[in-house]
Amino acid sequence: MASTQEHRLGPPDPERAPLKANVYEFARQANSQLAPIFPVLGRGAHVPAITVFRGGTGIDLGQFFHRNTVEEIIICFGARNSLAGPGSLFMDGKMHGVAIPIAPDDPDAYLVGIVTQRQLDSGEQNESVVFRCRECNAKVFQHDYDATPGAATEDDRTDWMPMLPTLRGSVEAVALYNRDESLRTCPKCSTVNPCFPVDAWGWTNWVNRHDIAAEARRSMTTAAR
Questions:
Q1: How far, in Å, CA of 35 to CA of 40, rounded?
Q2: Burial (Cβ within 10 Å: 0-12, 13-18, ≥19) of residue 129
Q3: Per DSSP, which regions of 5-105 are E strands?
Q4: Under DSSP, is residue 141 helix (H, G, I), strand (E, B) or coil?
Q5: 3-state DSSP call for residue 83?
Q6: How far, CA to CA in Å, does 178 sit from each of 16, 65, 146, 182?
Q7: pLDDT band (50, 70, 90) for residue 159
Q8: Alpha-carbon span 217 to 222, nearest angstrom
């Protein structure tokens, strides 16, 4: 006979207060794909981030590959004309393709989803952004970066609210890839791949506004002193 064991959640971490948010309200104001819902990104944190996409005439969402030390869980909170139905849940592998499962040229297609990863309690976390050739699928470019919580201090822009390394790492990867044609040229078939449509993903908006907000707070602290 199988034993039964009662599982209970422990008390909240005194250093990490319980937080809540409405997914649909947050979706209205998100300025980026993979926008963290809560400012809790450190060791052992569960990090839910929202993604909101709609198709439309002439829209190109592109595709890339993402390598992560930890797995990512995706929950669809609503969709139309999408391969992911409302309420569906799936887990990506540590190396996975990133392509939004809607028809990009369909103005009626949309998706609201939450991507969640649990930060490691200890040890290094590393991530990579990889682009493959659209013609032959050979690897064209790979950008590796340190995603260990709290490891990348950068400067005092992050001393008051942490940066999600995935966002800054993705911005850096795309900047390198888009500005150098040689990095977009396939070493196998010589195809020159198009620039990645980063504007459709909004990562640069999030990183820039993070930096502006942090610098503005620092200026206020300096004035108060």
A1: 12
A2: buried
A3: 35-36, 46-54, 64-68, 72-80, 89-92, 95-98
A4: strand
A5: coil
A6: 39, 16, 21, 10
A7: low
A8: 9
Token pair listed for 54: 């709609």
Rg (CA), the chain: 19
Joined together, the tokens standing for residue 69 give: 């030390």
Q: How far is CA 79 from CA 55, 82, 86, 98, 115, in A?
A: 11, 6, 6, 17, 15
CA–CA distance, 166 with 42 (Å, rounded to integer): 13
Is residue 129 a contact partner of residue 143, using CB atoms and an 8 Å limit? yes
pLDDT in tens, 103-125: 888 999 999 999 999 999 999 99
φ, ψ at 135 (rounded to 5°): -90, -45
Of 20, 36, 52, nearest in space to 200 by CA: 52
* pLDDT tens digits along 165-193: 999 999 999 999 999 999 999 999 999 99
